[in-house]
Pentatricopeptide repeat-containing protein
Amino acid sequence: MYLKCGSLDEGKQVFEEMLIRDVVSWNAMIAGYVKSGYACQAVELFWRMQQESIEPNEKTFICVLMACAPPVSIEEAALIHTFLSMYSFESDIHVGNALIGMYLNFRLLNDAYFVFKHMTMKDVVMWTSMITGYSDNGRWDEALNLFQRMLQESVIPDEVIFLSVLSACASLYSLRFGLMVHSIIINAGIDLNPFIGSSLINMYAKCGNLHLVHRVFEQIPFKDTVLWTAIVSGYEQQSEYGKALQVFDDMLATSINPNEFTFVSVLNACTGVASLDLGMIVYSNIVESGIECNMHIASALIDMYGKCGNEEDMCAVFVCLPITDTVVWNAIIDGLAQHGNSESTFQYFKQMKHHGLEVDSMTFVGLLSACNHAGLVDEGLYYFYSMLVDDEIKPSIEVYVCLIDILGRAGQLESAYALTWKLPLEYSMSLYTPLLSSCRIHSNLDVATRVGESMIKLHPQRESTYVLLSNVHALKPMRAALGTFDFDS
């Protein structure tokens, strides 16, 4: 009774005073610890139970497996799994669900799938756990493949699965799969509530179909903050900044209160239209709403001030913040880089390292941007190798774009072109575009032709490639004419 009412101390006292404790009372006490957030104590009690020769049952293992998440170590969790294998409970569907959940808590997806694969019976909870695990950990293709298998086995999906699958579709920009999932939702008669609706809006926005974004939004009768935020964010992410600001205005007119994520998207939209005045109005709305200026809002404010040319206020926001977070430091570093203030950019980076903050790929995007604006090739290469060797960070595509641009602007076009061949094919178009622009600046027709041919092979229908290439080749007759001109006459 005490444990069910949340009175852990009273429950523990009663438990310790019991002369005879059967498996039911042990299970109740372990479950009480888990429910109250005392995972380590739950595991300790489980081992004490074994020392007192109390035979565990399925419920015992379900409870203790639920406790197996950090700060409990993976070694402890694996030991409990080994102990479980001595019994005949592994085939129990509820124990199986708890085992899968345990491995997902440690992000050990392959171990979770091993348990999943060997379960003779799989319920919708098990499918949901595995699909969500893949989706949440960036293994989106596997999430979608498993979803298709689930449908083939005639398992009816629940709402949570749809949220995870739509998230995977958005991450993969897979409009076709997303449309299929949407049709399944409609045919299953599932209501378009704000959660499903916002997931659909996010997916269609990421895939670039703003017409369907609007249609889904209009079809949902009850529009809450989550839904309004989704459509504002959708328009903002697709650079439809005017529409994002208009929808935000409509949201305020319906007396729906924005949240921090709404304000971040709106501030980004203000940045997109380079309107400091609008940004200041939005900031006043944030203050009036009583929402704390957390790291997300702070970084959006810093980005807005920086890109709207107000370096003084950008630095003032940063200095006034009690937040010591990588996202905010990245924002100030990037803002200073955009202003061409390379010395201050490098200084803030040193301070960031001095404070022991973790740097990431976006930190180095800001540093390389500063090097690019200042024409500092050697410094750019230094920071790139520092990222690889000192910080052991895998470069993002944005880092490589900056590096290609640094080399290209400095006229090192052959080196830049050679680098593109060492990187994954999916990076190619993002890297070729700045390289081709550099070829135009330096009138290098040889590298431009090779880059252009590669771009056309990848995307023969993309018109922008032909425009860029024609601009480069337009310089050929000009260069030939200049070559025959007598500058001394």
